[in-house]
Amino acid sequence: MFGILAPHLKEFTDDLSDEIKYQKIKHGVKDVKEFIEKLANRGKVDPLSNDFAKYLDDNDKLKHLRYEFCIPKARDVVTDGVEALSPEDDSVYFCGNSLGLMPRTAKDLVNQELDVWASSGVVGHFKHKHNRPWVSIEDNVIEKMAEIVGAKPIEIAVMNTLTSNLHLLMASFYTPTTKKNRKKILIEPMAFPSDLYAVESQIKFHGLDPAKELIKLQPAEGESTVPLDNILKIIEKEGHTISLVLFSGVHYYTGQFFKIKKITEAAQKKGCIVGFDLSHAAGNVVLKLHKWGVDFAAWCSYKYLNSGPGGIAGIFLHEKHAHDFNRPRFAGWWGSDRGSRFQMDQQFKPIPGAGGFQVSNPSVLNMVSLMASLELFSKTSMVHLRAKSILLTGYLEYLLDKQLNGLGFKIISPRDPHQRGCQLSLKFLDKNIRDKVSRELMSYGIVIDERDDTIRVAPTPMYNNFSEVFKFVRALKIIMSDLGIKK
């Protein structure tokens, strides 16, 4: 599928680097609606027909990945009091932005570790029949995780959970100074509540007042997203007072893909440390953390990285900080030098890079569950996934505009496909209508996510297809008509 996203519909050749492919995708598709109609014309099919969805699926070079996942049946995703219309059909799972589906190999890998535990006990830490000794279990995921976020292996650690990791990183990188009056933290509008709790508590930890030291960007009246220019203006104006800029990569509510490179450059120019919560970005969009010079980042892995509920998380620490051992940190034995870790000499010798921020030995079961998903990512690339994602959300947007034309809702995600991830957020004008729509979608076996007056629809390129997008829009059109909502 990534091939047809090149300019003028030319196929990519195998010898092109991912960087070149990425740039072709980035600059080759400006008007998705026009592009979809060109594709329909090429396939000689009506772009509003189910035949066009099938045409896109037939030409999807990533369609084989869908069969690597367990797709829930419609009967198993309905809630109490809802009857599935086609209970034996596969559900339409558009909720990877909340919890990704299970890779088929995850169960086998977890069972292998249970078998090693049963047969070997503590010996499994050092002798492992599958060549995954628990003492170094993280070695099985570091390089693959680094590829997904555009980092070097020394810059990656897989450990803990998201908010715990944010606290560990801020303990080192949020160092407010009263003397220079650089104490503030800048966050995006409507930051995810856990991030907000974390930064407010960090400010309080330093004896400061969040009401004075936390800058929360707000969108303009009637808008849901914040233009890059507004972000850069506040950094230029307040940068001398800001200690830390902490944004999400992709906003959980609107799906806005923030310009990480430009935000980082502007903030660092003013002397700020720059960190990102990439929970909705890792495995969703193309990231180049090392190249962009981001100071640190953290992310969960149970959304687009499909590691399972409460799965183990990841961190990034730029190589430029790898040997900076003078920063304050909360230390634990798993961040200490491997060669002396078990000597129990009570001398903390931090591992250079992100590994030095580890505190405890990781959950083996969580680690191999993540490994199952990363093995699938290694069968493709983020460039290819992103290309399909742009077309998936573009097709969804096209059908919604053509078939429903804002019927009782508006799309609050950015209309530019390069400024959003694989999510469209539909804000309903009446919350009661949203409640009814969500309930009725469930009867069709369609799984979406709700936030207040909004439903978040996230067709994920790893396992969703274009026919499912068509099915969603058709079901929504029927539901809105049944509710008496007309143009």
From TrEMBL:
Q: What class of enzyme is it?
A: hydrolase
Q: Which cellular compartments is it found in?
A: Cytoplasm
Query: What processes does the entry annotate via GO biological process terms?
Result: 'de novo' NAD+ biosynthetic process from L-tryptophan; anthranilate metabolic process; L-kynurenine catabolic process; L-tryptophan catabolic process to kynurenine; quinolinate biosynthetic process
Q: Which reaction does it catalyse?
A: 3-hydroxy-L-kynurenine + H2O = 3-hydroxyanthranilate + L-alanine + H(+); L-kynurenine + H2O = anthranilate + L-alanine + H(+)
Q: Which family does it belong to?
A: Belongs to the kynureninase family.
Q: Which InterPro entries match?
A: Kynureninase (IPR010111), PyrdxlP-dep_Trfase (IPR015424), PyrdxlP-dep_Trfase_major (IPR015421), PyrdxlP-dep_Trfase_small (IPR015422)
Provide the positions where the record notes the PTM N6-(pyridoxal phosphate)lysine: 303
Q: Which cofactor does it need?
A: pyridoxal 5'-phosphate
- Where mainly located? cytoplasm
Pfam families (UniProt xref): KYNU_C
Q: What does this protein do?
A: Catalyzes the cleavage of L-kynurenine (L-Kyn) and L-3-hydroxykynurenine (L-3OHKyn) into anthranilic acid (AA) and 3-hydroxyanthranilic acid (3-OHAA), respectively.
UniProt protein name: Kynureninase
Q: Which NCBIfam families match?
A: kynureninase
Complex formation: Homodimer.
Binding-site list for pyridoxal 5'-phosphate: 162-163, 192-195, 248, 277, 280, 302, 333, 361
Give the record's GO CC terms: cytoplasm
Q: Which GO terms describe its molecular function?
A: kynureninase activity; pyridoxal phosphate binding
What EC number is given for this enzyme?
3.7.1.3
What UniProt keywords apply to this chain's record, in alphabetical order?
Answer: Cytoplasm, Hydrolase, Pyridine nucleotide biosynthesis, Pyridoxal phosphate
Record pathway: Cofactor biosynthesis; NAD(+) biosynthesis; quinolinate from L-kynurenine: step 2/3; Amino-acid degradation; L-kynurenine degradation; L-alanine and anthranilate from L-kynurenine: step 1/1
